[in-house]
Fold these 2 entries.
Entry 1:
Amino acid sequence: MRYKCIHKNEWDKAIEQLLLSYTIFASVENEYGLDYELITPSDIVKISYNKPKPATSLKSFFLPVKENVTSQKVDEKPRIILGIPNCDIEGLGLLDEIYLDSEFNDVFYKKRRENTLLIGSDCFGVQEHCHCSSYNINPYSEDNADLAVINLNGTIFLRILSAKGEDFVKKIPAVQSLDDKDTISSIEKEQLVTEKILSDSNRGLPDYKETCKLVTNAKKNIWEKYSAKCVSCGACTVICPTCTCFLLIDKPGFEKLKQMDACQYPGFERVAGGEDALAELHNRFRNRYMCKYAWKPEKFKSLACTGCGRCIEACIGKINKNEIFMELAK
Amino acid sequence: MPDNRNIYKPIRARLTDVIEESSSIKTFVMVPENNFSFKTGQFIELSVDGIGEAPFTPSSSPLVTEKIEVTVMKTGYVTEYMHMLKPGVFMGIRGPYGRGYPVEKFFGKEVVILGGGCGLAPIRSLLYTLESIKDNLVKVTLCYGSKTPSDCIYKPLFDRLNNTEKFEAYRTVDKADKEWDGSVGVATTLLNKIKINIKNSVAVVCGPPIMMKFGTIRLLEMGYSDDQIYLSMEKNMSCGLGKCGHCMMGEFFVCRDGPVFTYDEIKDQPDIWN
């Protein structure tokens, strides 16, 4: 892996300059916790580095909650999203497969992807429900993003992950090469510490393939038991970095609004005449698990759950998917 | 290669005629403003301006490209508005989407078609296609059931088929009226009346979910194998693009991988009959 470095003060100045030509979003700690926020010059000092993980996922930057997909134009100004944990970066893999497929590609998604520079952030430490490594995802990016950022001892280190990222750092004159093996090994040491915490805190949690088998073979009583606390609010799917189901709403002039939808909402699969395969709550509840761990993996290469744990945090019924898997694995 | 075409934008089509097929079913004849063609069994997303959009398989021949016909039962929000439309207005069309009937696989075979209710709409399109390639087919037998004699759509179709070489068409009704002197019983009962060389045959089933289910069961009892039965599946195909997720049936997007499947392909998926 190739690294570049820049003094933190110089980096902050560089961001200020970049604001003239880019819209920048970064993870910022506010009174509710960490989240992606639009950065103005006065916010630069508030940018949080290497902390897991923004409350909302990355997807809404590419798939807005609601947009007009027949007449609206995408903002052409280039964007930087800074401080993205690898669970979110990996989540984009599935979105790319769905929205950039060769037959039907979504121009809105495509333009936003092309316009955006992704700067990942190595996670130093974990949050309560983080479990990326259980699904073979590292808490730091090695590909799929353009750069990864590490803030260590007053220096910003930039790991170069793509040609786009490499071109980008050339625009910042204060960036220097880094070949110091000791510094690189101290970054790797931090990565190992996080990996160790993740594996300790998720001991016994089944991996992706095993989870597929467990949910596929789970009996109806499991889904009934855990869905008893579900109120079909859809928070788990709204917050998920890989859930992107939507609804098209018609407006006069054959215009269409594309709005986020969720299989957890009643009526999601209802057809004219009233037939509805997901009419019952426990079936809708099961659908989400089957979709993520059994059905999507049959169709796509990218994972449909990246272990971010946001669905557990968002659930008002305090349903913990990992408790279900642990019970099934017993 | 991905291009910059807007996949969500419909093309406009002028409604030129509305044909009343039964008390609850109408055929909408449309002339698209742009070139539009489809393969039999594929579907389109048809929209009523400002109201909504729904998936339909065209009932017209794919060989006729200057107009397109869609036969619609009044059964929900969008279709109720559709039934109020008069010729002259514009409708929106997206598509065609999905995998239609693989008619080249029917070559050299007998084709049994089991249809019910408004399921005859996609079947009519298939029949037009099969008529155009009848030299390559051994025989085509249509078994169709409607609730009552007056619910039967495309009535002239049956006489025309029965006067066409290699084609036979049978009708039944769930409930007869005073004038009806034909078969009474569900569509599957017609399967008992036909002579068919099952080994060299394929079966096509299209109709309400309950008929699809029991039709498939009956065909399997008769000796059809799972991969000889073609089903036209009905799910909530909303985007038609394999993206919105509404029509997922296990690992399949019905809109992309279907709507036509062999029973063999989908028999292990959950809730295929509703």
Entry 2:
Amino acid sequence: MPNATVTGKAKDRSGSTTPPPKRRAPRLTTLFGRQPLGIGLAAPYAVFLAAVFAYPLGLAVWISFHDYFFTAPGAQVARPFVGLDNYKTALADPAVRRSFLNVVEFLVINVPLTVVLALVLANALNGAIRGRTFLRVAYYVPYVTASVAVVAVWLFLFSSNGMVNQLLGPLAPDPSWLINNKLVMPVIAIFVTWKQLGFFILLYLAALQNVPRELYEAASVDGAGKFRSFMNVTVPGVRPATTLVVILATITGANLFTEPYLLTSGGGPNGASASPVLVMYQKGIEQGNPDVASAIGVILVIGVLVISLINRRLLERD
Amino acid sequence: MKSNKVAAAAVLTLAIGTTAACGSSGGSGGSDASGAQAAHGPVNVWLSNNPEEVAWGKAMVEAWNTAHPTELVTAQEIPAGKTSEEVIGAAITAGNAPCLVFNTAPAAVPQFQKQGGLVALDSFPDGKAYVEARTGAPADQYKSPDGKFYQLPWKSNPVMIFYNKDIMTKAGIDAENPPLATYDEFLATSKKIVSSGAAQAAIWPAPTSEFFQSWFDFYPLYAAETGGKQLVEDGKATFDSEEGKRVSNFWRTMYAEKLAPQEKYPADSFADKKAAMSIVGPWAISVYGDKVKWGAVPVPTSAGTTADKTYTFSDAKNIAMYSACKNQGTAWDLLKFSTSKDQDGALLDKTGQMPLRKDIATVYADYFSSHPDYKKFADQAARTIEVPNVPNSIAIWQTFRDGYTSSVIFGKTPIDDAFKTSSDKVTALAGQS
């Protein structure tokens, strides 16, 4: 049809002195846009995404609706469609429900703490303070250190006879931090905040470079102190970065696995620190029920998407 | 408009993935099973990463290769992973599992079998006869529900109570004959150890949630208390019983009175002398041998059963043949070679682990007379209980562990309620295919 329109226009203009310019490859433009080279350059990454993201995600969704288990190549097994059975099984399991509540508790502590600490520390590191380079590196070191090594240190710090309890003396909690139903998730949330902080400070440091100096000068002329400038200039100035930090912290937090796996040896005490991903690992890999594990995964993905969209709407609102 | 584009992209991404996924679902084709079983040629095997077992494995393979130059065997340690079972499970799915794994956990066998990853040893003409002749009646515990052997019972580590003689003496307890036979004796001895300050804990089994931890606290005592009952028998959970509750109440008291800590020790509590006792197999002799003056006694029972009637958990590791193996004929011959009387003797000599063969105390009498420390474990090896070979084995142990940690370790729920709930779930899981 577009060709017919072009032909019609050419006929209308046939009476004019100059012939109409010939359009070049409109189909190509329709398919690949005005910059086909861009498509070409982006294609490898798109293929990569399809292979490592779209395919596994699609497979997980498919598995979650079927009676599925991993088999040897060539094994003939029936994998009937089971509708929402795997979702019902997952949601009927108290361990799964508990894990989702645990991760909500984790996010409620971890995300605001991450945003506030990262922004405050980035703001401080952005100023002319003594030992700035050392501090920037120091905050980043936990992020690049292997979790296994860092977890071992925290185990010694927070175990019953650990340094923290020795410092607290009679004020030490009983049961101790890592076997206390109420304290274990906050400890993990603080651990993850500390470990990831370097990365988020880096994001805020980059964002702070884009806040115009003139705004601070104008605020100063208006009589604003450091706190006022921070609240009225810095915080709004890095809002896009805050959106990114909140969404990234939410996504990484929802995928919590290593810390409960190592720090509390499988989500203890009594499931109080089990995360959905840990339960997925137990059900999918250890117990050979990838169908139920996939259902948990799909629920988690939907939950994270919803939370991220809400965060984005709230944070980007003027 | 922007939101619509994002939504469309997400749906498209998902659709592509789902389509791709559906396209690849389901198995097809099949291997020529009978052809593979007759085939001879090179094979590969995986060994445990225990240094002593690796040394035995390499010597065994060298002996085989010298005698069979056209059927060479390649051995390597099981690739690193969170657990051996996960690595083997992944290898089955990928189709690159080795011919034999000399470290197959009995609890994982039902899952590997369900995956189509194992070869039934009964499919070899002399398969069933060989397994039964070597192991005797205890081999029945390793049969799958279809009546076939998908694993060869290889070696066990019958667990006993290992104790530190110095700590016992420090606590004013007779180190050569500590009173540990009954629950009352065990509790009284434990109280003395802790109250005297001789050690921080009487015993420190891992109080964590991993499915296998019950094999080293509840299960050995349950085997002893019941005279050799498995967790599941005839498709039904057995632990919601008087015996099961007696064992659980014993452990609850240990935790409630802080004789056993509720928090995992980050290293080896027995080696670090933080705990006076530990539940271990004969491997511990070589590990603790020179560092700790140790003694070993059977696990306690409520009535103080004599050692010659006390059962325990076997902590066995077996050999299984994997369906990805192309030269199963050679693999079967190698399996028999590696579990011959001579090779079992070499394994015992190098590792101290007990071959799951009949009458080891008499077959290897010379070894036990020159290694008297191992004699108690050899005697105990005759009375061991394996994990039940039932569908959903790992899920069953995890279900049991969850109820146990909640009620026994942390005392959050009454033992009666927790065991009833766990028992119903376990019976349901055992009944699923």
